[in-house]
Design a protein that fits this description.
Blueprint: E1 2-5, E2 8-12, H1 17-20, E3 29-31, H2 32-52, H3 54-103, H4 108-144, H5 146-157, H6 164-170, E4 171-181, E5 186-194, E6 198-199, E7 210-213, E8 219-222
Length: 229
């Protein structure tokens, strides 16, 4: 979710449970200029590692994504198996609500409220089923297209700046977590998922932490030793 406030652009959580029935407990956000710096720093680090450790880098996608994809595939298949049962339950609940309304056990107002709730969840479930199937198909595609990731990183190495097409070619999505610490000095975990290979963590290096100043004066210190996602 992309928003603005007094000329400051930021991304707010699209998985906040009170807004979208998601899983996040808070409506956290991150400034666009800050995340732009982090993405640039990470891509430069990938490019630098590819340049100096080409053979090792080429092995990382296969070694990492095999385990990642199997775990995600299992989770998606589990959710897909649960979906029909929940859909059947919603159908039964809707039918019972209708019967209770007709018999006078349930007021018209309560009937409208409950029936709307069940219908909304049913439509959301239908969307999730589609997304689960789409993601499973994408995982199969990822298995066949790992070389495309290396090609995209090499293409980035020849560019002076990150363009929108290049961003779409390299990155699938980015998870941003809640801030931890004080108002000024805080940490915020950011996990980048690349196209074709998912989350990828490079081996530890002796490089110092990356530091940058954003356009809006936000100091960014990027520590390239993320926890596994």
């Amino acid at each position: 979710m992309y928003s603005t406030l007094q000329e400051i652009y930021f991304f707010s959580c699209s998985n906040y449970k009170k807004d979208t029935r998601g899983n996040c407990e808070t409506r956290h956000y991150i400034r666009a200029d800050a995340i732009e710096q982090v993405v640039m720093l990470e891509l430069r680090r990938l490019a630098k590692y590819l340049e100096s450790h080409e053979e090792e880098f080429a092995k990382l996608p296969a070694e990492k994504t095999n385990a990642d994809m199997l775990a995600e595939q299992k989770n998606l298949e589990t959710e897909l198996n649960r979906a029909p049962a929940r859909n059947e339950m919603l159908t039964s609940l809707f039918a019972k609500t209708y019967e209770d309304n007709v018999s006078g056990k349930l007021s018209d107002e309560m009937y409208m409220e409950l029936s709307h709730k069940y219908e909304v969840e049913r439509l959301e479930l239908k969307t999730k089923i589609f997304e689960y199937k789409e993601r499973l198909a994408k995982i199969s595609e990822m298995e066949q297209n790992k070389d495309d990731f290396l090609k995209a990183v090499r293409k980035f190495m020849d560019m002076d700046s990150l363009t929108a097409p290049m961003l779409r070619e390299l990155i699938d999505h980015i998870d941003v977590y809640e801030k931890e610490g004080g108002k000024k000095n805080y940490t915020q975990r950011i996990v980048i998922y690349y196209r074709f290979v998912g989350y990828l963590e490079l081996p530890s290096t002796e490089d110092e932490n990356y530091k940058a100043n954003t356009r809006k004066g936000v100091d960014v210190e990027y520590i390239p030793t993320a926890k596994s996602a």
